[in-house]
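Worked example 3. Consider a protein that binds pyridoxal-5'-phosphate.
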Amino acid sequence: MSNPGNPKRFLLCGRPPAPVLLAATARILFADPIAFRAPANLKGKIGGMAGNTTRIPMYACAIADAEIEAAVDVLRSGNLAQGERVRDFEEAWSAKFGVRHAVTCSSGTAALRLALQAVVRPGDEVLIPGLTFIATASAVVEAGAIPVACDVDPETWLIDLEDAAARLSARTRVILPVHLFGNPCDPAATAEFAKTHGLDIIWDAAQAHGAAVQGSDVAGWPLMTCYSFYATKNLYLGEGGMVCTGDDALADRLARMRNHGMDHRGLWVERGSNYRMMELQGAIGAAQLKRFDAMAARRRSNARYLQNALADIPGLHCQAITPGATHAWHQFAVRIEPRNFGTGRDGLAAALSRSGIETAVYYRTGINAQPYYDENFASGELPVTNRLSVELLSLPVHDELSQEHMAQIADAVRNTCDQTTA
Ligand SMILES: Cc1ncc(COP(=O)(O)O)c(C=O)c1O
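Given these inputs, the predicted complex is written out as structure tokens:
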């Protein structure tokens, strides 16, 4: 299992050490486009895990032939900087997910930063969930605002609106809910909350590509939805991000802010920086989007298998899905109650590792307990976040895994419970 001191932590929320990234990038960029095939098994294609062929990995970065060819075309085109391919990707995304504007950028963190900068002023407060990746909070700080961490619901693990209501102040300007692990938040309840308290909503959909509620894709939810295309995400370009919005004026501003706040005359008219996406990412993105439905369907069927196979294990709980939701299954996490399961989350992780199954912990530390947050913004105890940060364990669910892998994972979890309670 990964842990904060372990280089493998990059598997979801951290970054691989530079040599690993370089090696992985070189494998992708310089593979012979004819000889390279998206492998039928997991052999040698897991970022940072090449050569470790016997384990079931948490992530697979399986760039398909069409994506490699699109990337090679870019390399041969003489234009690497943001241009036609990035525009194609944005248009394909808007059309697929039914949103008026899709503005790409360099990362999910940049997407959050741009969206926040479009609506907050220095000193404004932004409500975020305590259980999320650091970027949700760090982007708020970067935008000059104050992150206010709220507790999460004990069943859905999503921001708890009742707790959020208790943390409102005269300076609260935005609520930034996270569709954690791909489970979309309740759009109606959140919109009602935002309307009542005069807030804008920025959705963190870094883990929720293709998630929806009652058929309405999260991409089109007002006011803005932010994605990440980091190497482990459900659609992966290595790095990359996007802000979606239905608002024409906002889309213009986002596009301008990602390019130094420069207008069409080349004049610097507002605050901005270089948050542009490269053509390489745009080309891979447009190509990968064509197989996204198949990727998402495989994740869903893997998750369904685990949900059924693990349903009656004592002390093991799955994430409660928002009513009417299509979950994106970025993570399949289980909550382990040691007293009934027989061992705790870390004991299960160790047992699965011995059986050749990788796992990961998201998140070992709530935002409230992060040293920088605690020193600068401490907003009190978050008991549910604290409990989940010691009880959650993510199991492999990605789209390169088969039903046989799922059966192996489910058997190993059940055996651990049987053996530790025997
Ligand atoms: C919930 C959440 N928000 C934001 C981000 C930031 O995305 P990126 O790593 O592309 O900057 C991530 C990435 O892990 C994430 O999981």
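Take a moment to read the result before moving on. The chain has three domains: 7-77, 84-282, 293-421. The first helix runs from residue 18 to 30.
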